[in-house]
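Dig into my protein:

:::
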Amino acid sequence: MEGRRRGATWNPVPAGGQRHGDAQGFHNERSLADAAGATASGTLAVTMSGFWPDRKVLVTGGTGFLGSAVRRGLASRSAGRVVALSSADYDLRDREATAQMFDTHAPDLVIHLAARVGGIGANQARPADLYLDNLLMGTYVLEEARLHRTPKTVMIGTICSYPKFTPVPFTEDSLWTGYPEETNAPYGIAKLAQLVQLQANRDQHGQNAIYLMPTNLYGPGDKFHPDVSHVIPALIKKCVEAHEQQAGHIVVWGTGKASREFLYVDDAAEGILLAAEHYNAGEPVNLGSNEEMPIGELVTTIAELVGFEGEIEWDRTKPDGQPRRRVDPGRAEKEFGFKAEVDFREGLARTIDWYRANRAEAEARTE
């Protein structure tokens, strides 16, 4: 396998100590102060950047929810060539298929978004699948990127990797202080293993790879199929159907006391692309909105926006999941100028409108 090193020239970072330093891998990285500039909101002005036009970017999971948003962001940056792949193109759980992907496309930059995901129900029903599928995909993508001397790789982790009882807001230094919430643990640990592999590869091989952890995503294009949907699409679907049927009540899992942070999908894509251009260190980075909402308030807000006026009943026999989630977004803002922009209520309204206009598509998608 070591002989299969091809593609763009790889100028690896110096071995040793690079977890805390910058990997000056395949381009001359400018400081944020010398970059094209920042908007008043703190997001770097992308139209002035010369980073993207000559890049060949491969996006695994590129036709999915987050992948579509990343593609929109790449289009706005005039990326030289974008290869967006799905599981129909390559089974990344297979080592040889993953190697073939790199052989065929020889990217300058890989953004690994492909994942098997689901809400609490899916986590309970298929924990082994979620663990093994995500572990294999991440392991093989990262290793084949190394063997093919891919100049830079962006790995996407999850805040499900944080310990169940983590001080809020979650800081990246808290990742190893405890065990994840039980229903999230198989998925969260599989993703966290990729951080270990990434940092080991940086130390031993000088691989330029970074690790980002977006909080719970939502927005137009989300998955509303009950087998894979997360809390916001599941609640939107439930409230829309109840409104249409003039139901007197809906039943929601848990107690409503757990809280979550949500990040609009296009904001997440912006954070990923800013990091791809400007961040080269080995430490993990949160991507979040810095806002936290109890699930009970979330249900009430969605019901109001949908127009459902019935009662909300809580099924307390079902789990709440992790008690609280909100990440500290300070490292992302400091290192590459990321700050979430979309107002949560506005983002919810856009998501509801998209679901109502694209219902068949939204409910059919499982990837």
About this structure: The radius of gyration is 20 Å. The chain has eleven helices and twelve strands. The chain has a mean pLDDT of 88.
